[in-house]
Design goal:
Bound molecules: adenosine-5'-diphosphate, magnesium ion
Radius of gyration of chain B: 31 Å
Mean pLDDT of chain A: 94
Distance between the termini of chain B: 16 Å
Shape of chain B: elongated
Number of helices of chain B: 10
Number of strands of chain B: 4
Mean pLDDT of chain B: 85
Strand order of the largest sheet of chain B: 2-3-1-4
Low-confidence stretches of chain A: none
Shape of chain A: globular
Helix content of chain B: over 70%
Order of helices and strands of chain B: HHEHEHEHHEHHHH
Oligomer: heterodimer
Order of helices and strands of chain A: EEEHEEHEHHHEHEHEE
Largest sheet of chain A: 6 strands, mixed
Structural class of chain A: alpha/beta
Number of domains of chain B: 2
Low-confidence stretches of chain B: none
Helix content of chain A: 25-40%
């Protein structure tokens, strides 16, 4: 599903974001990307979503080289990738329902489809009752659920979450992580960049560790830190 | 883009105009000023041109015949003029007999004593001819000057070629200046609008990012800004038109009275009506164009789409 071949990203200021990364995440997999702040987690994810361009190497999504495709194809790539962020990014003047519907309107889904899918997506994340609330009326966890519903409503093949629990308390973090796991159970490939040592260790998923731009380990049912 | 998407994004653009009231007003204000300057330049040009056209049309070729001209020569000259009239080159012409000339002379002197000893026999017959196209004077005069019965060189054929050339030259300069001023105005307005849109782009950067993330096409992202620019253009055009209409009406009435009072009755401002429609059209077209173009420039520059 996602493949990195010798990918290096050096920012304009000379900082190395990612160095010679090789990686394969298969369809339906769940993988954590861990590493301390500045280790290159966001860089790795942004190379998938084409928010950043690599200096060398190739990033593939579903067999297509993400950085060789034309400008007009990028929106189509993004439609196959659901995105969740640490800072939520909801439209403040739209309700939860409208925020989720917005994602469907932007891909020109039929109004009938929107009316059917949005409540389903909100139900999936457990927010069926808060559809009419504005972001300011929702807790951080609830806002992140809306974001998750928005990311899922167009049925992406891959869900990419960059520190989705970074602004949430431990209990809520667990809820969100469990939701991500649920999403993965339903067949979506899930990539989560995170700091949450406890959760990572407890969930026993694949863990890809980064240190200063380099993948230092990649383990099935891994833990946050190597203990050799 | 589907109609419902267009509606959704357009609503967004219109609401941006309302949301950024202050910025919108500021840019509408500037575009109005640009349009008004444009209108002013145009109206001045139109009026100067209309009066010059009038002057041009009133230019006449005067042909003075020999005092002792015979009927044959006179008829030949008349025939030549008629022939050119049939060809559409002559707009109108008049023949003045010796008696007419004498009467006119009499009428121009208040004291009949001054004409003592003069008879109509001493007067010259003449033709006065208005050409359909005054620039073609030489073409009309050339064959005429070869014909017998016309007085010799300096007095025979009178055509104010120099006046005409001066008028034409002035009209050319006026056209150039008008075009240049209009061009400058347009560039300034586009710059101003694109600056306003830049602020909206900044204010909406979060929303733009979300649109990108959910896979909206670039054209979707551009659309609200485009609509915002167009709306600003339309509102500016409407305001500029109202001001031009009222302002010109007042100027027209006042100035025409003043010109008449001062004895310049031959110079008049043209009425607003036929010209006004063209100006409305121009305001709206240019207003929307600078709005649209300004926003696209801004979006391209600050959004990279
Ligand atoms: N746009 C950028 N320009 C320059 N340096 C950047 C940019 N984005 C990230 N970096 C640097 O690249 C390194 C990796 O950053 P990032 O991928 O955001 O790490 P993480 O998400 O793991 O905290 C850091 O040193 C960061 O300062
Ligand atoms: Mg990061």
């Amino acid at each position: 599903m996602i493949r990195f071949i010798d990918v290096t990203k050096v920012y304009a200021n000379g900082v190395v974001g990612l160095a010679g990364a090789n990686l394969h995440v298969g369809k339906g997999e769940f993988a954590f990307i861990v590493g301390e702040s500045g280790s290159g987690k966001s860089t790795l994810l942004k190379l998938i979503t084409r928010e950043e361009t690599p200096n060398t190497g190739e990033v593939q999504v579903n067999g297509y080289n993400v950085h060789a495709m034309g400008r007009w194809e990028v929106p189509l790539l993004r439609r196959s990738l659901g995105m969740v962020f640490q800072d939520f990014r909801l439209l403040p003047n739209r309700t939860a329902y409208e925020n989720v519907a917005f994602a469907m309107q932007m891909v020109e889904s039929l109004p009938r489809e929107i009316r059917r899918q949005v409540p389903l997506a909100l139900g999936l994340v457990g927010l069926g009752k808060k559809a009419r609330s504005y972001p300011s009326q929702l807790s951080g966890g609830e806002q992140q659920r809306v974001v998750l519903a928005r990311a899922l409503v167009n049925n992406p093949a891959v869900l990419i979450a960059d520190e989705p629990t970074g602004n949430l308390d431990p209990k809520t973090s667990w809820e969100i992580m469990n939701l991500l796991d649920e999403v993965n159970q339903r067949g979506t490939t899930v990539l989560v960049a995170t700091h949450e040592k406890n959760i990572v260790d407890a969930m026993k998923k694949r863990v890809i560790s980064l240190e200063r731009g380099t993948i230092i380990s990649d383990a099935e049912k891994g833990r946050y830190e190597h203990e050799d | 883009m589907k109609i419902r998407t267009m509606r959704l994004l357009s609503r967004e653009g219109v609401s941006n105009v309302v949301k950024n009231k202050l910025m919108s007003l500021a840019s509408i204000g500037t575009v109005v000023i640009a349009l008004l300057l444009l209108g002013l330049v145009l109206l001045v040009a139109i009026n100067v041109k209309s009066n010059m056209d009038q002057m041009r049309k009133e230019l006449e070729v005067l042909v003075f015949l020999n005092i002792d001209i015979n009927d044959l020569d006179r008829e030949a000259i008349k025939a030549y003029i008629r022939e050119r009239e049939a060809a559409g080159e002559v707009a109108s012409w008049k023949y003045e007999s010796k008696e007419d000339a004498y009467r006119n002379l009499q009428a121009s002197f208040s004291d009949p004593a001054l004409l003592k000893g003069m008879t109509s026999d001493q007067m010259a017959e003449s033709f006065s001819i208005r050409l359909a196209n005054p620039e073609d004077g030489a073409h009309f005069i050339e064959p005429l000057s070869q014909m017998p019965g016309i007085q010799p060189e300096p007095d025979g054929i009178n055509y104010p070629q120099q006046t005409l050339e001066r008028i034409t030259g002035f009209a050319d300069i006026l056209n150039t200046v008008t075009l240049a001023l209009m061009g400058i105005m347009l560039v300034i307005s586009v710059f101003i609008i694109s600056n306003t849109i830049r602020l909206t782009v900044f204010a909406r950067r979060k929303e733009i990012e979300i649109m990108r993330h959910v896979g909206a096409l670039d054209s979707f992202i551009r659309m609200p800004f485009f609509v915002e620019g167009i709306v600003i253009g339309i509102l500016s055009a409407a305001a500029a038109f109202l001001l031009t209409w009222r302002g010109y009406g007042w100027t027209h009435d006042t100035l025409n009275l003043m010109l008449a009072d001062l004895g310049f009755g031959m110079f008049i401002l043209v009425p607003f009506e036929p010209v006004g429609m063209r100006i409305v059209l121009l305001y709206f077209i240019i207003g929307m164009a600078i709005g649209g173009i300004g926003s696209l420039i801004s979006v391209r520059k600050h959004l990279n789409v």
